[in-house]
Specification:
Elements lengths: L11 H15 L5 H11 L8 H10 L4 H8 L3 H9 L6 H13 L6
Helix pairs in contact: 1-2, 4-5
Amino acid sequence: MSKASSKTYRSEIAAAVHEMVEGFHDAGLVDKQTMCQFDASCIATAEPLPPEEIRALREREQVSQPVFARYLNVSKNLVSDWERGVKKPGGPALRLLSVVKKNGLRSIA
């Protein structure tokens, strides 16, 4: 269950099914396209974070906007825009924010 533990699944059943199909893929029984479809159906998506929650998260970690931005590999202006609601984080940045929310800033250091 080493691969499954590094991902967030929709449920325990989804994790078990995904791990099984991942084993089939590793054995050459399932192609890459099918594996991608299982990823999309089993792995949970990152929930959007409202501006006030992003700011609270940064303050909880006791870092400035420039330091927070460096951890996330984005500009300090972008962090400011997120906190003011001018822009919304998406893709890898949203996933990183979810990891920081769950495990703290040290988890991505």
